[in-house]
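Treating backbone geometry as a discrete language has practical consequences that deserve illustration. In the encoding step, the backbone of a single protein was reduced to a row of integers, each denoting a local shape. The amino acid sequence and the backbone structure tokens for this protein are reproduced below.
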Amino acid sequence: MIAKNSPQIDTKDESRVRPAEISGGMLARNTFLNFIGQSLPLFLGVITIPLVVRGLGNEQFGILSLVWVVIGYFSLFDLGLGRATTKFVSELLGKRDIKGFPSIVWTSLFFNILLGTLGGVALAIVTPILTGRIFNIPYNLHREAQTTFFILAPAVPIIVCTSTLKGILEGGQRFDLVNLIKIPSNSLIFLIPAIGIPFRLSLHTIVFFLLISRLGTAFAYLILCFKTFPALKRFIFINKKAIQSLFIFGGWITVSNIVGPIFNYLERFLIASFLSVSALTFYSAPYEVISRVIIFPASIAMTLFPAFSYYGRGSHKLLTELFSRPLKYLLFIMTLISGILFAFAGQILNLWLGNEFYQKSTLLFQILTFTFFLHAFAYVPYTSIQGLGRPDLKAKLDLINVFIFIGFSSWLIPQFGINGAALAKLIISIIDVSVLFFLAKKVTGSSTSELFPKKLGKGLIISGIFIAVIFSLKAIPKALFFDALLMIVCIFLYTSMFLKIAMDNKDWSALRDFKTNLFNYKALR
């Protein structure tokens, strides 16, 4: 049914729709769950991928990797409606507006089904062109590849709808339920091919089971949404007034989602063009390792987005707390990780990839370490801007930064090789983080002292001292044993000072709450 206004919902539903008040312990718990939800499938992929490569062979594994790309990137067909759903669900729950809640959900789902179906039809139509002309697939695998992509086409609307269903639970701060489904679902992406190898399953059969797993994931999210928010079962309708808000917000999210991969992959094409494909190897391998450090800030961002949307601009004090405290925790964790990676960059490369990478990629590794250290701090202001309803600011910044990034990459790569690519990445990260903090300050209406309170400032000083010491120690040649011993001493002193000087009672209270409620399901009901 289509309605201009929301029907009346019995107030007895309110206790089931409204989430618990957001606390520091809840945010810490959700961040931990999100971190585990991203890390476990990734770890499983590292173990199973070599087995799958050997079992399928290079050509068929290449086709499977394209399937994984489709599963990952066809969520763009939702035009940002999944993220928009999370934002507006959180916002309505924060306002206790349970009457408008079902309309946002069903309106978003309706258009996701429509857009996903169009995406699936588009994939089916272009499949002969993709497998026959665009992708360089061996002739004997053309039929197998076509069958695989035809089977994959129905997965597109399922993938698109899943993002909205997941977004509903995220909007209600139910990351326990989200990760209960997400961990096994994302693990099956790697497990199904690995299990299929001993049974000699064909590639298209493996993809068929992947399709079934995606369908099961969508139904699991739907059941949990109904259980968490019973009003959704009784009021199924589309609200015309919600359509414009969803598409405007989602449209700007889509711009950022489209531009994002350019920052991730553009310099690789330029390296291959200006230098060589072999030079690209010495850039890509270290990059893939270093880029994994953003799992932690990304986990925080996933937690903060519905929290910023929930509170909105209603409480300035809560808003600034929500901004500054995660920055402090990010500073502590990222300083430790980045310090270790920077200090032992050469040893890591030599042990993992060999002496040639040690010779050619150590400086690159160190530059990228500092780059992703800075990039981690973009997540909090970026999330606050989107959560407070201004996704257009980040999208416009991304569009400007693309041209800046192209310019610096085109200049620095011919001059300094792969290190030039890392320097271009560093420059654009400095610009991005600086502008995002400026924009967040304007959007939140906060002063610098509010966003960077004294305790956070002290943490910055302590972290700066730790980094300076690491730089100084690296300049002194010494054996690996003494390097490791000095690093352990520095980490102990840094941790002790940071916890004693930068942390306050609220931080310790949140930590105790996190430890108490980590496995307490009822605490978040």
Remarks:
- Residues 273-516 form one domain.
- The longest strand covers residues 2-3.
- The chain has two domains: 18-248, 273-516.
- Residues 1-19, 521-525 have pLDDT under 50 and may be disordered.
